[in-house]
From TrEMBL:
Pfam families: adh_short_C2. The keyword Chloroplast does not apply. This is Uncharacterized protein. Belongs to the short-chain dehydrogenases/reductases (SDR) family. It comes from Catenulispora yoronensis.
Amino acid sequence: MADGGAIVNTSSNSASAAGLTPGYAAYGSMKGGLNVLTRYMAKEFSPRGIRVNAVAPGPTRTRLGDDGFSRHPEVIPALAARTALGRIGEPEDVGAVIAALLSEESRWVTAQIIDVSGGFNL
């Protein structure tokens, strides 16, 4: 990567204290490790001017879990009810934050884990 670049890792709010859901221990632990790696990468790459951050999405309509939201749409209302903004996320919601973190406007942001969940589990 060229000096002055930017990296955005994709974590999960499953790694946050508010995101604990039974059955997600391995997934949440792996994403927690990615959060630590993000901070180390930010520190280690900073002499080259490379910024490293992570986004931590909440429930987002993707094909994760073998396209689980399409196969089990009945889970969506319960997840939306646990989200302050009243819906599950869309890929564009997360993509917009990633694009912002990669842009020059975020040139002073590094080593951050950004919750992109619409207020899931508030």
